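All the exercises in this workshop are built on plain-text protein records. An example says more than a description, so a record of this kind follows:
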Amino acid sequence: MTCEWICEHWIISSATALAVLVLAVRVLTPRRRKSVSDDVVLLYSFPRAKFAPNASPFVIKLETYLRMAKIPYEIDDSVVFSKKGKIPWITLNSQDVADSYFSIEHLNKHFKVDLDHDLSTEQRATSRLLEKTMEENTM
């Protein structure tokens, strides 16, 4: 029965086998790291789009944060996924941080940046609510 199904669905079987092979090569290929100086963030992202900074809203979020906070950074758009399997992620002083939210938290602590320092407690709460609503329910 298995052989009959594979013979009848050879396109699906071939595509699945190819996807597994590509994934295995990607996982087993050693990551080439771009070298940057100390306190320069290396942002791993998807390649830039033709008419937009990036196709991923999370990459745009993290890159916008880096610009607003005036943190020096370089982009590696070679589509290298983090250990958690996510993009974007950053490397700062040889320390990897996955996920845009955790990256921003890490950078806030490292560079002592608070872009919300002028906001009241109520405004901070509203900001957090909007951020989580947009990230968790619309993406």
